[in-house]
Amino acid sequence: MTRIVRTVAELRQHVRAWKAAGEHVALIPTMGALHDGHLSLIRLAQTKVQRTVASVFVNPKQFAPHEDFDAYPRGEARDAQLLETAGCDLLFAPSGAEMYPQGFATTINLTGVSEPLEGAARPQFFGGVATVVTKLLIQAEPDIAVFGEKDYQQLQVIRRVTRDLDLPVEIVGAPTARAEDGLALSSRNAYLSAGERAAAVALPNAMKAAIAAVRAGGRIDEAEAAGKAALAAAGFRQVDYFDFRDADDLSRLGPDALNEAKPRLLAAAWLGKTRLIDNMGF
Amino acid sequence: MTRIVRTVAELRQHVRAWKAAGEHVALIPTMGALHDGHLSLIRLAQTKVQRTVASVFVNPKQFAPHEDFDAYPRGEARDAQLLETAGCDLLFAPSGAEMYPQGFATTINLTGVSEPLEGAARPQFFGGVATVVTKLLIQAEPDIAVFGEKDYQQLQVIRRVTRDLDLPVEIVGAPTARAEDGLALSSRNAYLSAGERAAAVALPNAMKAAIAAVRAGGRIDEAEAAGKAALAAAGFRQVDYFDFRDADDLSRLGPDALNEAKPRLLAAAWLGKTRLIDNMGF
Question: Which keywords does this Swiss-Prot/TrEMBL entry list (chains A, B) (predicted)?
Answer without folding.
Answer: ATP-binding, Cytoplasm, Ligase, Nucleotide-binding, Pantothenate biosynthesis
